[in-house]
Amino acid sequence: MIDVALEGPWHPWINIDHGAVSLRFSVPHVADDLAPFPDWRFAPNIGRHPASYQLENEAVDRAGHVLTAMRAIAPWAGRVIIDLGCGTGYWLRRYAEEAAQVIGVEPDPALRSVAGRAAADPAVELANTEVVAGSAEHIPLPDASADVVHARFAYFFPPGTDAGLTEVLRVLRPGGHLVAVDNDYRSGEFARLLAAAAVRPPQQTAAAVDTWWRDRGATRHEVRSELNFASHADLAAVLHIEFPAEVATAWLRRHPAATGLSYGYVLFSVRA
Fold first, then answer.
1. Which residues pair with 170 in a beta bridge?
2. 94-118, pLDDT tens digit by residue?
3. What is the CATH number of domain 45-271?
């Protein structure tokens, strides 16, 4: 186990597993007005509950559909890929299996520290991987330096994200791709949970998001998948960080033995 020593008003220690390496760290409450990057907004699901969010990443990875679809849209084998908003770095290892170079960009200092320690540790064999401080609107890389940029539920919640798209296109080489992962608000049990928790009708959100990307030349790809958890307890932990308690509890009562649920994704791809 690697003990990650972080400075600041930290909360109780949490263990995160990256393959053979266990990362132990604590998570701060960070006010938006203290953020080092003006476009960054603290994400409470991963920022306050990184261990549960790790379970969610594992459930996505276990199903495999999203990674397969992203690879089909923009292969990264032998190329330079940026994981924009890489969090604790779960997906860096998966990209490093094929890419020539992997760069994780993360604005949250606590999450970035964990991702950086994992990438630098020889036990996980990520010699082609680095983690840097940055955000969607402030990517610390030269022009035309990357082939693929992935943004998984990071920043691109339009409208209002044109500055980030401009910055991504700056760092992409001609012919490179941005692939942004979002929820499909029209398909799957997860979408029904989103609807139960929503203030704005999800169909309106979906229409606005689709229009924003279409107007910017993006192609839209639907992925039908599921979240597959190792246990009902893991599923419950994730639902409670993603939804209000009453919504999560009601669903879990109706599905007392469930270890997964259906999930629809939409991938938006823009070519430089």
1. none
2. 999 999 999 999 999 999 999 998 8
3. 3.40.50.150
